[in-house]
Amino acid sequence: MFRRLLLLTMAGTLAAAGAAHSTTVIPPSFDALVSGANTIFVGEVMDIRAGWESTPQGRAIVTFVTFRVEDVWKGNAGAVTQLEFLGGTIGEIGMKVEGMPAFRLGQRDVLFVSGEVRVVSPLVGFMHGRMRVERDTVSGVDRVRTFDGRALGSVAQIGPQRAAPSLASITPMRLSELEAAVRSRLGAVRQ
Question: Rounded to two decimals, what is the model's pTM?
Answer without folding.
Answer: 0.82
